[in-house]
Amino acid sequence: MKYITIFNELNITRQCKRYGVPLWQCPQFLFLVMGLVVIIVAIATYYIGTQYIWDPRLVALIVLIVSTILFVVGFIISQSFERLAEANKIKSEFISVVSHQLRTPISNLGWAIELLMSGRLGKIEKKQTEYFTILKENIGRMRELVKDLLMVSRIETQTLLFKGKEFCLAELTQELIKDFEPVAKASNVQIVFNQPKRIPLVFADPFQIRQVVENLLDNAIRYIQNKGDIRIKIEARDNKLYFKIKDNGVGIPPEDQKYIFQKFFRADNAMKYQTQGSGLGLYIAKSIIEKSKGRIGFISQKEQGSTFWFYLPILKENNIKN
Amino acid sequence: MKKILIIEDESALQKTLGDSLSQQGYQPISALDGEIGLKLAQSKNPDLILLDLILPKMHGFDVLKKIRENPATKETPVIVLTNLESIQELEKAMELGATTYLVKANYSLEELLAKIKQVLSE
Questions:
Q1: Which A-chain residues 92-131 have CB contacts (< 8 A) with chain B?
Q2: Scanning A173, A248, B2, B17, which has its CA 20 to 30 A from the CA of A127?
């Protein structure tokens, strides 16, 4: 049993996976690198020492001192990385537990209000319906937030499963546009999408990609002030299917652009125009697209609007949805 | 009147589900833990069972396994109704003989009632 524990401690990839951090941030890996550095520096010090110093005892002493100092520094660095990785892991677990625990009361509330609103338990006055609608909408918001938090926790703990299959991105987009139509109309936004006739199927997890398109559409509508339009384009190029969504909304200020895919980040002007929003949507979108072997990016100009794009791999050019 | 057994430890959900089902003309039977749930499944002979997974005294999977082992309840449809969303749980539930697997957070009451109606008519 003890040997297994020692072996597991030595198994660096396993340890790094446990923390859910990239290899170069993993404390065990850093410790190994520092060990190598100590050895190299010790040898280098020895060679340099023997060139200039004749007394071998002095050379040995210098090599010893330099190695010890480096070892101590390396140890402190890897220790602090370990603490950081540990804290990061606890945070991810915390998000996971909290969001799971929040789901139950949210379902309780949602179903109870639905039952009340249905009028099956008694007649509802018009004024009461208005308030029930407010409650229902707010529960919907909580549900979305918890869904996003759960997604983030799955991404961070690397437990997000990829159930890839071939599907038609244009069809999925069309469906979502239909779902968003009432919100778009209420915000004076027109969505233009000319569904291409023959389009190759993409290979990805359709539920996850749905969330990506949903987030991009939601952002585009949300950050259009007063009135505007959104143009969506899907086209195939070099074994990839490109999705492009262009809006004439508030845009992203240049100083905020490099942070836009970070979790919980919200641009300054976004906060001004829209107080709602968790800053998770684009982080989730990026993680999903990268996990699907695609890429995501954008170009944006403040006050002019943004164009977000992503591409996904096409398995076979001839798999075409007519 | 069709009997529906609700094995669910959340009393708030028990009440909402119970009331909704009564409104729809079903007879709800409530069980707040796995052990009582299993006992009622065998003694009351329900037409459908709604089963939560994380339950006191006996886990939903054990309840489901025992339900399927008993010849009297072997064919009774069981809808697993939970907030656990991992693929492992879903696969295990289906392997143990669940009729269908629903994640509470993803369903509105209306959709759930429609699903119940559908399972009962099959």
A1: 100, 103-104, 106-108, 110-112, 114-115, 118, 120-121
A2: B17
